[in-house]
Structure formats: C-alpha cells, structure tokens
Write a structure and sequence with these properties.
By secondary structure, the protein is an alpha/beta fold. It has 12 helices and 16 strands. It has an 8-stranded mixed sheet, with helices on both faces. A 3-stranded mixed sheet has the order 1-2-3, sandwiched between helices. The protein has a 3-stranded mixed sheet with strand order 14-13-16. InterPro entries: FSCA_dom_sf, MIP18-like, Mrp/NBP35_ATP-bd, NUBPL-like, P-loop_NTPase, YlxH/NBP35.
Length: 368
C-alpha cells in the first residue's frame, strides 16, 4: 500500500509546475524524501535559497496535489534550501535559538512554550503534563497542550476524548477540553494504528502539529515530550523558542540516571531546565492511606541539587491519580480540593512564573 500510494502521489506531483522554469517538480528533482504510509504523506521541495520566499505558492500547490490523491488522509510538504543567502531578519524570540537554514520559528503567537520531558518512559510524565496544563487553564491562562509523542500518544485517553479534529484546507482546528486547546497524533489516526515511522516522518508530523494547527494566541503551551533524547527533542529545540523544560523522574537510581541525561541534553541545545519533579515519590495505600517509599524517596531532589536546577515538587503514587487519568478526568479538575491537585497547582504556578520571566510574558497567576 505504501509503495503504490507513493507512486500515485509522485504521479500527481508531475502536474505541479514551477512557473519560473516550466518544469514539473518531480522532473526538476525538487521532490525529496517522499514517504507515504497509513494514509499520511510527507515530502520536501528542495529549492534555491534565494527563491525560497517566492516558493510558498508552489509548496502549497504540491501539498494540495498530494492531498487530493485517493487514499491520502493528510499531506505535508515543506521547503528546504540548498544554497546559502543573506540571512533574513528575525524577531528577538526567533533569533534567540533559530538555527541557520531552519527558516522562521514556529508558534509565534505562543507566549511561552514549556517541554515536559523524562529520560525514560513509565515515570508518569504525561499525567504530569496534563495536570499541569489543566491547572494553568483553571487559572485563566490561554493554554495549549501538544502531545509530541508520535509513537505512544496518550492525550486522547487522558483528556477523555476520541473526537477527530476539524480541518479547513491544510489547517487543523485543535480540540478543546478542560479549558485548553489540545492536539495529538492520536486524534488523527486509529488508536490501534502503530506509528512505524522513521525520524523524518516523526519530525514532519511534529512540524505539522505546530505549524498547521490553528492554535491562535496562547499564554503558554505545554508539550508532552516522548521519553528519551531523540528526534522529537531535537525538532522541538530547533523549531520553537522553548522557554524551558521540566524533567519528570521517579526517585530510584535508574530513573535518575536517565533524568540526568535529559537535563544534559536540554543544556546542550541551549534550552533552560526550569526544574525537576519527583513523581511516584511515595505510595499511598487506598485503604488506610499509609505511606510507603516503594522507590525510595528524595532522589530527584538530591539530583536536582547536584545538577544545579530547581526542585519543583513531589507527587505520590496514588491510585486515584491513575484512575482519573485513565478515565480522562485529570485530578486537578476532578478532585480540586485534594492535596495532589493543590500540589499540581503550586508546581504549575512556579513553572509559569519561571517561563514568564524567560519570555517576558504576562499575566501573573495566583494559586490558592
């Protein structure tokens, strides 16, 4: 199916001609990296950098031609350049980290973008990201929540919706849930469809969810990162002006070792680490509320001190947090009077304070 779909897309692209040369984009050798799988198509148009500013209509035409092919659910085309030219002026936010050759940074209307990351999976990062995002929205901020985990998207489950986003042309409308705007690859594909994609497709999907989604003006966007230090982390650090990263870890040594790698990775790409959260810090028995340090306790605090970053707080391994997350009702909204909801709100306020300082965003929020 993939090979036949790619051939059909390539044939459709032969009808798209560069008005400057009269050649179609395929014959001219402009189409690079064409990948078609599971109805999703991605490719780039390689153009001379000095013509890049005038090539957007051609890119849009090529993308529309690919999207019209039967069997294509969504198509993404990006421009790449192969010759150098004088740099274009950038805004202060863009200039801070925009790598040369990458073009303008994405999400220019978002005041602060914060990545919630972990060095390894299974530490409750997504639960933390969702509750922090909802806590920020409950304080009146305009919040976006982006699921950057292409291989294991969890937002549909944790937000309690399998609704498909509406699209107008190439622009997708994010879903609204719990007072925030949300987007995940899980909203676009069947929940049992495995994302067997190589790095370029992952990066293309991320850029699509940032650049072709109608996020509008936001005070803050929380990005639920995939675990590890791979393509998604590199794409985010290069394509958006991250205000900082929050690292989630459990207390035991093996998780802290991976958290340490996460901190160092963000430092290498010049993204400030806003702090470390210790999740599953202790276990609360659902019957008697007895506390047990199943994975040890305080390891993330000690690691934060060793790395010279702020320790933001700790959250317990509690059955209610997991049950509510699985039910699509984050604890900050389902049990707002619980100690755990209060801790999420406190951490969210501190994250916003630090992100706001990094980007001169506004307004401040008050935590009860």
């Amino acid at each position: 199916m993939g090979d036949s779909l790619a051939a059909a897309v390539s044939a459709a692209l032969r009808a798209v001609k560069d008005p400057a040369t009269g050649k179609d984009v395929v014959s001219a050798g402009m189409v690079q990296g064409l990948v078609a799988r599971d109805g999703l198509v991605q490719f780039s148009l390689e153009v001379p950098r000095e013509r890049a500013a005038q090539m957007e209509p051609l890119r849009a035409a090529a993308q529309a031609a690919a999207a019209a092919v039967p069997g294509v659910l969504n198509a993404t085309a990006v421009l790449t350049a192969h010759r150098t030219a004088a740099p274009q002026p950038a805004t202060p936010r863009q200039a801070a980290r925009a790598p040369s050759g990458q073009g303008p940074m994405l999400l220019p209307e978002v005041g602060a973008i914060v990545a919630v990351a972990s060095g390894k999976g299974g530490v409750g990062k997504s639960t933390t990201a969702v509750n922090l995002a909802v806590a920020l929205a409950m304080q009146g901020l305009r919040v976006g929540l982006l699921d950057a985990d292409i291989y294991g998207p969890s937002l549909p489950q944790m937000l309690g919706t399998r609704e498909k986003p509406r699209a107008s042309g190439n622009i997708i409308t994010p879903l609204s849930r719990w007072g925030l705007k949300a987007m995940s690859i899980g909203f676009l594909v069947d929940e049992e469809t495995p994302m067997i994609w190589r790095g370029p497709m992952v990066m293309g999907a991320l850029e699509q969810m940032m650049g072709q989604v109608e996020w509008g003006a936001l005070d803050i966007m929380v990005v639920d990162m995939p675990p590890g230090t791979g393509d998604a982390q590199l794409t985010m650090s290069q394509r958006v002006p991250l205000a900082g990263a929050v690292i989630v870890s459990t207390p035991q040594d093996v998780a802290l070792l991976d958290a340490r790698r996460g901190v160092r990775m963000f430092e290498k790409v010049n993204v400030p680490v806003l702090g470390v959260i210790e999740n599953m810090s202790y276990f609360c028995c659902p019957n008697c509320n007895h506390r047990t340090d199943m994975f040890g306790h305080g390891g993330a605090r000690r690691e934060a001190e060793r790395l010279g970053v702020e320790f933001l707080g700790e959250l317990p391994l509690k059955l209610e947090i997991r049950e509510l997350a699985d039910a699509g009702t984050p604890i900050v909204t389902a049990r707002p009077d619980s100690p755990e909801a209060a801790e999420y709100r406190r951490i969210a306020a501190r994250v916003w304070e630090k992100a706001r300082a990094a980007t001169q965003a506004a307004p401040a929020i008050v935590v009860d």
